[in-house]
Amino acid sequence: xxxxxxxxxxxxxxxxxxxxxxxxxxxxxxxxxxxxxxxxxxxxxxxxxxxxxxxxxxxxxxxxxxxxxxxxxxxxxxxxxxxxxxxxxxxxxxxxxxxxxxxxxxxxxxxxxxxxxxxxxxxxxxxxxxxxxxxxxxxxxxxxxxxxxxxxxxxxxxxxxxxxxxxxxxxxxxxxxxxxxxxxxxxxxxxxxxxxxxxxxxxxxxxxxxxxxxxxxxxxxxxxxxxxxxxxxxxxxxxxxxxxxxxxxxxxxxxxxxxxxxxxxxxxxxxxxxxxxxxxxxxxxxxxxxxxxxxxxxxxxxxxxxxxxxxxxxxxxxxxxxxxxxxxxxxxxxxxxxxxxxxxxxxxxxxxxxxxxxxxxxxxxxxxxxxxxxxxxxxxxxxxxxxxxxxxxxxxxxxxxxxxxxxxxxx
Length: 411
Fold this sequence. Notes:
Transmembrane segments: 176-199, 230-250, 383-404
Keywords: Calcium, Cell inner membrane, Cell membrane, Membrane, Metal-binding, Protein transport, Transmembrane, Transmembrane helix, Transport
Distance between the termini: 94 Å
Radius of gyration: 30 Å
Oligomer: single chain
CATH topology of the domain at 268-371: Receptor-associated Protein
Shape: flat
Order of helices and strands: EEHEHHHHHHHHHHHHHHHH
CATH class of the domain at 268-371: Mainly Alpha
Subcellular location: Cell inner membrane
Number of strands: 3
GO molecular function, one term: metal ion binding
CATH architecture of the domain at 268-371: Up-down Bundle
Strand content: 5-15%
Helix content: over 70%
Function: Component of the type II secretion system inner membrane complex required for the energy-dependent secretion of extracellular factors such as proteases and toxins from the periplasm.
């Protein structure tokens, strides 16, 4: 059976929406009529709603309207499924119950479509493969391993923990960056407002004077005129520059060069490596704990690395392990993975507890990253206040210098 999305009119002529399962669109329409509903539109739940535009937009529509859900929603759904499956509820009924509990029509459509495939005899991992934008390769690999090993419930619990931790880490990073961005934005807005609206009014007092203005005042007047005359064009140019850079970085070769440059920048490289390798270690740990073979785990974990250079290093690590090298030697040979991570992997391989040591390594790196970001933000805030104060001081001095010399300027 397949899940279908429908819109229909009830007896009062009101439009209602929902989902039904059936073998065909015709059967679903029959179910609606049996409920005294007049069907207006019936289509498969995993198909993008028709927006017009014809077949020429088909490929673009498929890209734009692929179902996606947030990390928080994915964590919630995974936790619900883990609880229901661990309660020995049949998988198709667990999916049905999870779909009924959610208020999001998008999530409900996805879960019902997955349930339809499971009811047809497909595995859960295979059914989730129809929604790669929602259930990534790591997610499906763990589900597949859990199904084959017979402990899907515990694997889903691990996935829920992992997804919730990823959501928590992402929110923490976003919250850490909000204040600096707001502070920079306010600082720029204040300076631009002073230069465009305030400075011309004050400097206009000296416009009729034949006395040469101080150099600082001349620079301020020129800057004010530039912002007033070309400020909008500068803003347009900055927006165009951002889009142009994004367009250039869409090319894998240019993006790889950019990522390599980032890894050479002091300070930034340390943060990027810590963030990426922590995600790599955490993913590798949870995959191996779920029974996924090491080589397959390395291949999948490498996909979570956002830096293309580090991703190539992870492929080289997998090749060395495949040739018989130990994981810690392969990581060490790369030269970019943190030494502490390499030492903990070596300890885990020696003790036979590699999964927990990888998890501990990821936790340590995330803690270190959090402390580094906290330190940087603590330094950034007073630095921005000092910079802002210096800029305002220069503006005030540029205005006051002619006033101090007002007696000699007025004739």
